[in-house]
Amino acid sequence: MRTSFSLFLISLLCFSLTSLAQTGLWMKYEKQFESKKSYGNPLYDVKDFSVRFTSPTGKIKTIRGFWDGGTTFRVRFAPDETGSWTYVTTCSDSTNSGLHKQTGSFSCVKKDSPYDIYTKGSIIHPKGSYYLTHADGTPFFYTACTAWNGPIKSTDAEWDTYLKDRVANHYNVIQFATTQWRGASKNSTGQVAFTGSGRIEINTDFFKLLDKKIDEINAHGLIAAPVLLWALPVSTGRELSPGYYLPEPEAIALGNYLVARYGGHQVIWFLGGDGQYVREYEQRWKTIGRGIFGKEHPGVVAMHPQGGSWIGNEYAHEDWVDILGFQSGHNASPRTQEWITEGPVAREWTQLPPKVFINLEPCYEDIVPGVNAPEVRNASYWSVFSTPVAGISYGANAIWPWIRAGEEIENHSKPHILRTWEESIKLPGSVQVGYLANFMRQYAWWQLKPAQQLLVSPTRRGEFVSVVRSDDRKTIMAYVPKPTLVKLYNPGNDAFEGKWFDAVANKTTAANLVLKNGFIEATPTASNDAVLILTKK
Fold first, then answer.
1. Which run of H or E residues covers position 32?
2. Could you report how far apart the first and last alpha carbons of the chain are, in Å?
């Protein structure tokens, strides 16, 4: 009897361990392999280490593995089917039995989670669409906070505080740098991600610390948006940014390493940060992009160019590009306002293959005098409404460099004011961009596209009224930056219900509409900017 009970306990323990070992759907599966050989520089000496996974329904996924120090290699990916998966490894060094022709299996199950990234799936860009969705087709309104230095400099406690705040404020993406760059020459422990230029060496200790921070992004239900190769080719510190100085083969090798290391996370890749991707640099970046993303890969890919630059005509036909990002610049001048509302992005998106258009870096709150919450809101709403609605990013001048009391921004001039990152996540604009996201998600935002032709009277600079309309013509929205009468064409004299969304108070109230003679008129009740929402009866 005692023997039988002991066997029962052993069986129960084995079952429990097996259950714990099961990988959740859309969650990171990780497998460690031990090389039978030591390599001087595995990045070059092992040309290929990959794992061919076969799903329960027979689909094949080939996932690149990566070196993680010593003789340890790993593979990571997020399984998209429940059931039993099998795998077989391939190594360019076929004599290395620890890496070549290793076989195995694992089980993927549905696990309870409060987060869309694990219940609705990874972020994808459906072909022919202007927006992102989860794998199950649920539209994903991109709302990012720019924390370039956050994972590199933050303590664990700081990072947890920050991520919890972003979740509470309706953000769903965190943009950050993955290596040393002009804004951070080393991480919090004084390490760099790699050394060398013509031939580089990976510092796995740097990335093991970064792993924890990226794990935490996903653990809070957020998407990680890592910049693979910071690329600004001008200004102080450009010699620190890998996208600027690395030769193309090294840039591709580093990018492939990062994709292998973080491809098991829920991610949106930024190929470069602040790069100049056109003219003399165009072929370089197309070569790098194709070298990293020209084959099967996890996640969608964004381009993040310099301020005030537009790369749509050059990159819209690149199949590996999903998000044609733009950056409007860090001021609120009339010229910048006009660039957002009537510039090349607003004019030319209709002429290009469908991509996702997002302002990935509008003006940072606090960056210069005169850029405060109203200017952040203006830039954000104008940007969202200037192309098919897809999303927006927010930044503050102390969050991205992760400033603590008494610190300054590396390789950047001293600003007029420099708060701490903790103060900045509570700034009005920081909170109000969250309001914007939460407001948009209450509607079928993915159907909304620019419809400036509905506006009867053009508006002056600084008072530009942006208008979007749904594909079925049942919903119209107009962003009104200053209280003024809005007059829209309504040639069919259709009946509409109207509401005003107060962008500051985060409240929706009824709109007093005047419908007559083929027009709709409404005047905001708020003293600040607001959005008019018209719904056909």
1. strand 29-34
2. 74
Q: How many CB atoms are located within 10 Å of the residue 489 CB?
A: 13
Residue range 387-435, pLDDT digits in tens: 999 999 999 999 999 999 999 999 999 999 999 999 999 999 999 999 9
- How far is 286 from 282, CA to CA, in rounded Å? 6
Q: What is the pLDDT of residue 200?
A: 98
Q: CB atoms < 10 A from the CB of 44, how many?
A: 14
Q: 3-state class of 403 per DSSP?
A: coil
Report the C-alpha gap between 513 and 523 in whole angstroms: 8
In SS3 terms, 303-372 reads as EEECECECCHHHHCCCCCCCEEEEECCCCCCHHHHHHHHHCHHHHHHHHCCCCEEEECCCCCECCCCCCC
- CB 315 within 8 Å of CB 324: yes
> What CA–CA distance (Å, rounded) separates 243 from 272?
7
pLDDT for res 12: 40
Could you give all domains of the chain from N- to C-terminal order, each with its CATH number? 22-112 (2.60.40.10), 141-337+355-369+389-420 (3.20.20.80), 451-536 (2.60.40.1180)
- For 324, the token pair is 């044609």
pLDDT at 13: 39
Contacts of residue 186, defined as CB under 8 A and 6 or more positions apart, other chains included, come to 180, 192
- Nearest partner of 466 among 481, 487, 456, 483, judged by Cα: 481
Alpha-carbon span 207 to 381, nearest angstrom: 36
Cα distances (Å, whole numbers) of residue 87 to 62, 63, 91, 185, 368: 9, 10, 13, 39, 54
Rounded CA-CA distance 91/77 in Å is 18
Q: Which residues of the chain have pLDDT under 70?
A: 1-21, 459-462
∠ Cα 306 309 314 (to 5°): 110
β-bridge mates for residue 107, sequence order: 84
Main-chain phi, psi angles of 147, to 5 degrees? -125, 55
Among 87, 88, 95, 86, smallest CA distance to 35 is for 95
Model-wide pTM > 0.90: yes
Question: How far from the centroid of its chain's Cα atoms is residue 44's Cα?
Answer: 30
> Which residues are within 8 A (CB) of 9 and not within 5 positions of it... i.e. 6 or more apart?
none
Alpha helices, H only, 129-281 = 150-153, 156-168, 204-219, 242-245, 248-262
Give the closest residue to 266 by CA, choosing from 115, 106, 446.
Answer: 115
Distance CA 210, CA 472 (A): 45
C-alpha count within 13 angstroms, C-beta hemisphere, residue 213: 29
Residue 305 and residue 283 in contact, taking contact as beta carbons nearer than 8 Å:
no
Burial letters for 246-264: b for 16+ Cβ neighbours within 10 Å, e otherwise? beeebbbbbbbbbbbbbbb
Tokens 């999903």 correspond to 322
